[in-house]
Amino acid sequence: MNPLTRFPRLNNAWMDLKHRLSHWQKRRERAAETDFDASVGDPRNVLVVVVDCLRADHVGRFGHDRETTPTLDSFDAAAFSNAKAASTWTFPSVPSLLSGRYPHEHGGRFETDPRNLSAAEFPQRPRADVPTLPDLLETAGYDTGMITAIPMAEKAVGERFQHVSVRYTDASERVETARDWISGRDRWFCYLHLGDPHAPLDVPDDHRETFGVPELDDLEDWRFRETTDGDGFETYRDARLRAYDAAVRGADDALAPLLADVGDDTVVVVCGDHGEAFWEHPDLERRLNDDPRGYYATDHGHSVLEEVARVPLWVRAPGVERMESDRAVSLVDVAPSVLRALDADVPDGVSGRDLRDAPDDRTILCEETAYGYNQRAVWQDGRKLVSVPETGTRLAFDLDGYLEGDPLGAVPDHLDAALASFGGGVEGGERMDVDGATQDRLEELGYLE
Question: Distance between CA atoms of 170 and 172, rounded to whole angstroms?
């Protein structure tokens, strides 16, 4: 264990310096590997904000019964309550968001089944020749910066940015860092990743009372991960949900000055990179997967069910109507939508669609879990198929509400065909590397044992 963890400020400064030095070296190596080119006809500043683990059904505007997101509720943008993450954990999801490609297309994924990230079995990184928003906008003269509280985001695509700041701090500090970085720059692309709703939760003191968060053991992390049997489960579950909502509210509060700062001509995207499970489907998860940790129905990265796959998405960009929509869209739609808003060409091989003209009857994919077997889900026409290729398990669902109910008796042919259309995909890049101090932090975040 890193002894500096007893001194959070000093540890954060040391970790930030280490990440900057590592980033500098990776940038030098990357310069010789890639040759991207892009031109922007309508140069606007771009802000992408990811709130880790943010579920769509915990957003006030989308019907949640607690006031978790007053800032985002009032944000004048297209608000999508049914966006699907390309993956249900950060490492594959963020490259999909920034490239417009699914994990099997950008290569940031595991090579084999079963997976056990908790035992420090790390995935391959995205292919160097896959262009992302920071790659393309840098060639068009933008300053590009990543400010993140989650190291998995930096491990996936950090070297794509000119500037990186990784600190394990709350949303208010990360937002202030982003505002400082933006200040005085002429043309910029800023990626900001907040970690407050990710375990261990960062619960603001002033919202513990707001949401009635009680004092219970392990509330910022998890209990009842192997089974929901035992005294105190319902009390703990209620308290854990309240603590999660308070953490979401802390992130939302911190975003208020940033969203007020950026001009109306700035392209702004806000979303979750994946959701979070709170004991919705323990039996169904056991039917679909064998988690090497023995954990079911909590956290994320272990299934592709709606609680972890469905996220909120806000987009403010030229030509994107400012409205509220529950139609199914995907986070792979972000990159092409941003590029089209800037009057820039969308690279070949992008699966995402510009949100201005994405068809309602399209097929959407989610894949690449981190524990147990890889799972793939496809959505089409209000129905969903979950497939586990390694075991041959396939279950289909009608999605009448927010979550899956009982599986259908048989898998409809059109869902079979939709899944088959995606193919196997490409080989990824080099394996993700992790130093000792970052491994300590990944253990705190629950990725590793």
Answer: 6
Q: Give the chain's count of helices (H) and strands (E).
A: 14, 17
Q: How far apart are the first and last CA of the chain?
A: 13
Is 449 within the bounds of a domain? no
CA distances from 393 to 285, 356, 383, 390, 422 (A): 12, 36, 17, 8, 18
Task: Provide the domain limits for residue 212.
Answer: 3-444
Give the whole-number percent of the chain exceeding pLDDT 70: 94
| Total structural domains within the chain | 1
Distances in whole angstroms, Cα of residue 412 to Cα of each of 84, 94, 382, 438: 21, 31, 12, 45
The pLDDT-based confidence of 176 (bands split at 50, 70, 90) is very high
Nearest to 94 by CA among 181, 200, 195, 23: 195
Residue 431 lies in a domain: yes
Interval 425-438: pLDDT, tens: 888 888 888 888 78
CATH of residue 70's domain is 3.40.720.10
